[in-house]
Specification:
Length: 365
């Protein structure tokens, strides 16, 4: 496993996140001073960085739970690689390179020109990013929807939180490709609500999202199978790593685009979302080492329901604007309810076992 989490407090897991927060907020304050030259400007950028960090944490808590679910089956070597190189890709790749890449492709300019555009003409940079929102939402929404549906359409799944829904989905998993058919129907429905070029863009982007999910699943399976043929200990290696990176990228789409509602400065966005990403990493480690997913049996269900809700919201955002606070609070609320349900289940189980144990002790006496 990642390490021996026995006896470690929650604060100890968040140590590096706290350090990164202090450095990031200090850097944000310095950037605000350089941009405006006033205490007010410095405080404004400081505040925006803090809000972006909270936004990222609220949007990505379900990401941490899903990461932990995958990580617990990975070897220690690949766990370490994901939590080191993976976080570098998450912070710098998705929060800096990804927005630049969108502008490079959309505006037909080079990477250097995109950086200069972000620094000198942030309003124009933001406009290009917002124009690219539709294909990003269609692609990311489709990928996340497949992630969520694949979890529930699983005939081997025997733990159910919302029984009347999940039992039906588990039984329906015997129908090959049912989750793909469901997603394709939704793609057709939403494409009919759009018009002209927007409809075509939505369909193509959504199909690419679907194909990306299927490709990651196939490639990941082949890579892990080839590693497994070399050694049984290689289970959950490169294939799982690629899956988690693409999953993290899909989660990041909403946060990166939503951040432009608060600021048009790419560097402020990178600082704020980077701080949030470090907390997601810390929470992932804590969930794996403390065995939280096993202790709270419905927590994982809440995360995957949140993923499905997020995917639908990303689809709806191609039609109307939905504030990011609704997205974040919706996911956090579902996870919170699943946590409470898990706690109630554990209490019922303890009450059920206690009389039995007391009866056994009486018989032995």
């Amino acid at each position: 496993m990642i390490g021996d989490g026995t006896g470690k407090s929650t604060l100890s897991y968040l140590k590096w996140a706290f350090i990164f927060t202090a450095v990031g907020l200090a850097l944000g304050a310095w950037l605000g001073w350089q941009m405006d030259g006033t205490i007010g400007g410095m405080a404004t950028v400081f505040f925006i960085c803090a809000v972006l960090a909270v936004l990222e944490i609220s949007l990505s808590f379900d990401n941490a739970i899903v990461n932990a679910n995958k990580l617990k089956d990975m070897t220690p070597v690949w766990q370490h690689r994901f939590l080191t190189w993976g976080i570098v890709i998450a912070v710098f790749g998705m929060r800096i390179v990804f927005p630049l890449l969108i502008v490079v492709i959309a505006a037909g300019i080079g990477p250097i020109e995109a950086i200069l555009l972000a620094a000198r003409q942030p309003a124009e940079y933001s406009r290009i990013m917002h124009e690219a929102h539709l294909p990003i939402a269609a692609f990311g929404g489709t990928f996340l929807m497949m992630v969520g549906l694949t979890y529930f359409f699983n005939q081997e799944k025997d733990v159910h939180w919302i029984g009347f829904i999940e039992k039906y989905m588990a039984r329906s998993a015997t129908i090959k490709g049912i989750e793909i058919a469901f997603v394709l129907i939704l793609i057709l429905v939403f494409s009919n609500l759009l018009e002209g070029e927007a409809a075509d863009t939505f369909v193509y982007s959504a199909i690419y999202g679907l194909l990306t999910f299927l490709a990651v699943e196939v490639i990941g399976g082949l890579l892990d199978a080839s590693q497994k043929s070399l050694t049984e200990a290689a289970k959950g290696g490169l294939g799982a790593f690629i899956y988690l990176e693409v999953l993290d990228a899909s989660f990041s789409f909403d946060g990166v685009i939503g951040a432009f509602a608060l600021t048009q400065n790419l560097f402020v966005i990178a600082i704020g979302l980077g701080i949030g990403a470090m907390y997601v990493r810390s929470m992932t480690i804590m969930l794996v080492e403390k065995g939280t997913l096993a202790e709270y049996r419905y927590l994982e269900h809440g995360a995957f329901y949140a993923i499905l809700i997020l995917s639908v919201i990303m689809y709806c955002q191609t039609l109307v604007h939905i504030p990011e606070v609704i997205t974040g609070l919706g996911g956090a609320g579902l996870i919170g309810i699943s946590l409470l349900s898990s706690i109630r289940y554990n209490r019922r189980e303890r009450r059920r076992r206690d009389p039995q144990e007391a009866g056994c002790a009486t018989e032995r006496a």
